[in-house]
Amino acid sequence: MKFAFYPGCSLESSAKEYKESTLLAAESLGLELEEIPDWICCGSTPAHMSDELLGIALPAYSLLLAKQMDTDGVLVTCASCYSRLKAANHAILNDGTMKKKVAEALGEEYDGGVPVRHMLELTSDAIAQPGFDEKITRKLSGLKVASYYGCLLVRPPEITGFDDPEDPQSLDRLVAALGAEPVDWRYKVECCGAALAFSQVDIVRKLSGEILQDAKDTEADVVIVACPLCHSNLDLRQRNIEKYLGIDLEVPVLYFTQLLGLAFGYSAAELGLGKHEINPVPVLRKRGINI
Amino acid sequence: MARIGVFICWCGSNIASTVDVKAVAEAAADFPGVAHSVEYKYMCSDPGQTLIRQAIKEKQLTGLVVAACSPRMHEPTFRRAALESGMNPYLVEMANIREHCSWVHEDRAEATTKALETVRMLVEKVRRNTPLEEIRVPVTKRALVIGGGVAGIQAGLDIISAGIPVTVVERTPSIGGHMSQLDETFPTLDCSQCILTPKMVELSQSPLTTIYTYSEIEEVTGYVGNFKVKIRQKAKTVDHVKCTGCGICVEKCPAKVPSEFECGLADRKAIYVPFPQAIPNKPVIDRPNCIYFAKGKCGVCKKICPAEAIDYDVEDTIVEEEVGAIVVATGYDLIDRALYGEYGYGKIADVVDGLQFERMLSASGPTGGKLIKPSTGETPKTVVFVQCVGSRDDSKGIPYCSRICCMYTAKHAMLFKHKVKDGKAYIFYIDVRAGGKGYEEFVKRAVDEDRVVYLRGRVSRIFEKNGTVFVKGSDTISGQQVEIRADLVVLATAVAASDGARQLAQKLRIGFDQHGFLTEAHPKLRPVETNTPGVYLAGTCQAPKDIPDTVSQASAAASKVLGLLSSDELVREPLVAHVSESVCISCFACEDTCPYGAIERVEWKDPETGLTTEIARVNPGICEGCGACIPVCRPKAVDLRGFSEEQIYSEINALSDMFKVKR
Description:
The complex is a heterodimer of chains A (291) and B (663). Chain A is α/β, with parallel strands linked by helices and 291 residues long. Chain A contains 14 helices and 8 strands. Chain B has 4 domains: 4-132, Rossmann fold; 143-332 and 537-565, FAD/NAD(P)-binding domain, CATH 3.50.50; 334-496, FAD/NAD(P)-binding domain (3-Layer(bba) Sandwich); 577-641, Alpha-Beta Plaits (2-Layer Sandwich). The two termini of chain B are 30 Å apart.
């Protein structure tokens, strides 16, 4: 299958390792990716918080570009981009007035029909296919993984329409399919504080601190995420949280595509494991993973 | 030669203020076939009816058009007046110039024209009306009750009290339903079993009652007053005639499975009686869980049975019953608890549902009435009750209120506090709906006397950490997130339609809503009838309801049954479809179309050719006169009495003639 790849801003900067590992994992899964030429920012939270039309028209522009490519849809990895692209399709399909306004803004009509898929959706499809086990060349058994879904990947359900919004399982199933051990914990869909990191840092420290503490309490070796902002709050800010809350965390946070890449046999360097604030390599080695 | 009488009603000022009734009467007098045309202030009054009766005789009228209100209002009145003067009532038609004209128009000239057009159309129709006779069908004086819970039991008892025999079909091995699982009932806290079992016994011991337990409805044919029902009796594997109910087989059976009656809190054997007060109090073998049926070995029950009642070779049997009326009382199930993964049901041992809590409270339950934490067996000190688990939750696809949870949760919290004096009870709620008699007082008692703490808000997550269960939710009154350490959590899971209700509804040709609840004929005025004559609803199969409402509805359904079965024959309106035998081409498109199953296939011998063919015939006992069969009939062999194609076309032609005149 071939997809128009929408990396989003984070994957070009703070989450380069998410992009690299996504491209490697996609190759192993037999997914052909072609980056959308001249894609623009999805608008993220600032756009839709300030202007409804802007919040829909920005992602619609990139979707319109993707429509001109001969693919099976758009592949997106950032949970926020995913949410905005899906919200644009949803609004244009269900609101005729918005569809018209978007057409005026873009100078061209977009029908809302380009399928938008998250990398996790495609991975979930892939693990159900025969022959998936043969791709696994590195054993991950013994590694306890807490799957963190965050807010936007599976919610709101009428827009994403993917997995159970309150008790999602797709990452957990992936962990099990890779031979690692999913842990049952309680913060899998709690908010990390998201963009409040820019305005009210204390809230993020508290919320992300609770998430990491619970992962630690349930004896998870690593947390996996599917969103660059979650990663930034949980990993990049972790030392700051430890200091602020006076606790010791030391919980490595990986992108799920990195875990996938590990199972497929890529090296730590190829997957960008060295780019994290909390180095995951020691705990991976401790669990007997050969890297 | 038609001699039609036209009677224009003023309805006081209701019609006369907008329609020039005198002009209409005068103009109608000149319509073809009209022999008499008058107006009067109140046609429905005694003098008005006398006017009509006299005119029929004096003017030798052959048909009537009464231009007045809706036929829903006074058609029976004027048809009766006609009958009293010796005229066939089906030669009377009403032109609705009130609801369809004066009430909805303002312009007097236009309204008058429209009234005239309406009268003209009806005159043309009446010229083609033929005398019709009411249809009389015989009645089988026996009722069928589907479902042996409290609704079915109450309906059955009320029917036999009038001397009408009843057949009760129950899917499980015993009658009693969910009510037999309950401990004490709100708002009076009387013991559920104690008030139910006498009714179960009374029903089962009546010579007028036939009970088929472990049985399901296979097929329903026929029509009101004359249903034929096939009942599948699942193989009990135990001959209940020989069985003495000694129970030794149950004692010795080595196969254990979770008990449905105990909601999985205890095991039962593969040969079992669901509960001690079961009726019949004789066991059945649950074949899928029986070792003998799985492996061909064991046979302990057969070896040990002193009455030689065990027969592994028996098969399902089909019995046929003829009944005149059917009461559907199939009850409810709880929603699938897997819908709420975030509440940990099934994963966390100390999270139970309301029915499980009832079983724990019950003195005859798996814990002997002792409240325990299922994980450890200790007495729970803090219990959190969560209301609206499923109910009123659009995100789970269940928008409706389950109606019973507010009350039973208050009762649960109260009974917990009675058993554990130093315990703490918290209830998460959205609203407390306590609208029944004595209900609000009951909830107040829970708060004031038993110190139950109500927290207004939803629970987001229930989780276990280091052996402790936490309930995380919001208290919207204090505006805070709360986290409660609970020893036990009780989920008030939503009431859902009983498994299989949709399939049964299809067999009975009755409606059901998107949630599988069976639909009544009118939500306010015909709450126990269905759209299929002779089939009635009782209890939670129609919508979630509590025991008092269920029993009321069951008695109402029984009274409808008794009303129906009180006469020897049923009288039905003759406005039904009929097939012209020589025109029918035996395509049976009508059979596929008919929503009531009124089309029968019959052998018919053509008197001209002497050949016998199979053709369609309308059973007038079933036909509702909806007319759906008419457009699908290719050779136009079907027509509707009272609304024939000729009559309808004559009305349309009359109207178009008047338009031509206008132009």
